[in-house]
Amino acid sequence: MTVELVRGQNHPLPQVRLEIRISAGVPVLAGATLGDENGTLHGPQRVAHAGAPMLPGVEVPRQAAAEHRLAVDLSAVPEAVHRVGVFLALPTGTTGPLRFGAVPAPHLTVHGPDGTEIARYTVGGLDTEAALIALELYRRQGAWKIRAMGQGYADGLPALLADQGLPEADTLAAAVQATTNPGPTAAYDHDTHRANDVNRADDGGRNPYDTPAPAEGPTLGGPIDYSHPRRPRHNAPPPTPAVSPASEGQPAPPVAGDAVGWSMEERLYNQVWGMFEDLTRTTAAYRSALDFADSRMEKEIDQALADPRARLGDGNAAEREAARTRRDQLAGQARAVLDRDLAQLIAESEVVEPALPPACARWDSPVWHGYRVPTEPPMALRLGDLHLPESLPLRIPLLVRLPLEQGLWIDSGATAMPEGFFADVAALRQAALETAVALAARLLAVHPAGELAVRIIDPAGAGTRALWPLTGAGVLAAPPATGAAGVTEALERLTRRVDLVQMAVRGGAAGSLPDDVDTARQLLIVNDFPHGFDDRAITRLRYLADEGPAVGVHLVLVADRADAAAYGPLLDPLWRSLMRLTPVPDEHLADPWVGHAWTYEPALVPVGSRIVEQVLGEVAAALIKNK
Question: Is the pTM value of this prediction over 0.90?
Fold first, then answer.
C-alpha cells in the first residue's frame, strides 16, 4: 500500500533498491547528500549532483529538468553513510523563478525495483526557499526508513550544504549551478526541458490527460519542445567545442541503453518509454500548431468578411488568400519541426530494436535465433507496437512490466478493421486465438523452465488448430480443458490455488503449501468465452481476474463482448479489469501523458516463420530436463 507522507513522518522501507521520481513543474536541480549518523557531509565527494552524478549506491540526473528519476541502492552505499538526503534547488542566473513559493509544490514518489509505489510526498508550505531537502533515507538499527523533510533554505544551495557541515559549501554550490545551469533562456529553449508546461495536475505534477495549449503565433515555427524531460537529446549541441569542423553541429548518434537503470534491460525499458513520451509530445506540439494556424486563418477571414464594403465583388479575395498563405506557412514550419524529431526517433529506434532482449523483441529479431532458456524471468514483455498517423513508419514497442498486474482481453469481435484485414467472423476469431498463442509462447520462452505453467480452457474445442504450436510442443501444464466439466475442473483448481496462497501469505507461511499445489506462476487462456460457462464458472473467472495477479495467476481472455451480451452489466467489471488487445490494428489505446488515440498492432509471428516451433522445442527440452 502506498503511504502518503506528511512533513516529519517516517516510514519503513521494505526494499533497499529504490527509484525516486520527482515532479516539480519547472526545471530544478536534483541531487543527493550522503551524510554520517549526524547528517554531516565529509567533503564534496559525498554530494551527488549533475557534475558528479554517480556515487556508490546513488545515481542522480545530469541536468536541470521539471521531472527527475533518482536511482538508489541502499545496500551499496558506504558503511559510514547513515543518511541519504534528496535535495532540490532552483537554477540561478536564469529567467526562471527564484523561490519555490512561486511554482507548483514539488511532488516525490518512491518506487521499488518492480515499479511498485511505496510512498509519496508533496512538499507544501514553501515560500522564499530556493533550495530544500525533500526526503531523507536514514539507517536505524540496521534497517532503512524514509522521512518526509521539506526543509527549505531561502539562501539556496550554499545554505543547504553548509547546514550539513560542508566547509566548501559555497564553492560546491557554485560548481553545481555552473554545471547544470541551463542558460538565460532555459525556460523556453528547445534544447532544454520546457518549463512552461501547461499540463500540471493538482498534486504538482503533470495532468497526463490534458492536451498541451497551442503556442502563440511567433513560436509556431520555432523552438517548441515536448521532449522527454529525463532523456538526453541527441540533437543537442555537443558539450564541448572540441569537435572537428566536419562534425560540428551534427546530432550525436543515438545509443542503445541511453537511460537510467541498474541493468541494460532496465535502461532499454526506460529508453523505450522515453521514446514513447517523446513521440507523444512532439505530435501534441504539431497538432496544437495546426489548430492554432487554422483558428487564426478563420479569424482573419472573418475579419475580412466583416467589412461591408468588401462583401461585393473580389474586394477581400487578397486578404483571404493572404490568410491561407500564412496558415500554410505556419503548418509547414510545424511539420518541419515534427519531421526533424521523427528522424531523431527513427534513428534511435534503429539502434534500440536490435538491442532488445527476447521478451521485448519482435519475433523477426535475430535475437531469437540464438535463443536459450533463461535462468531468471525478465522485467518487461512486449505486447505489440504503437504508432500515430503522423509517425509512420515509426512504431514504438508496447512494453509492460512483469509480472502482469492485470489480465488481458484479446477481442475477437468486429472492429474498424483496416483494408486488407479479416472480414469474416471465423477468421477474426482464429486470429485472436493465434495472438493469444503467440503471447503464451513468448511468456514461456522468457521464463526459466518450470516457473510458468500455461493452462487452456477451450470449451467447444474450436481452437485445436490455432493451439497446435503449444499442444504439439508439449509445453502445456495439462491438455486443454473442454466441455462444461473441464471448465469447472480447471477453474476450481486455480481458484483453490489462489485461496491457499492468499491464506499462506497472510499467515506468514508462504512456503508451506500442499504438495498438490503448483507453485509456478499460472497463465490461463480462455477461448470462446462465455461458451460453456455457467453462472458459477463466470463468478470464479471474475474472482481469478481480480485476485489472481497478486498471487501468480494471470488471465488471457479470448472473447467477443457481444457474445456475452445476455449477461448484461454482470460482466462489466470483468471487461474493465482487463487490458483490451486486438488481433488486427485498432485505435483503442491512449497514452498517459496527452491522451492521443494510438493504433495498436499485435506482436505476431511472421507468416511462414518456424521460430516459435524452434523456441518451444527448447522450452520443452528444458521442461523435461527440469523434471
Answer: no
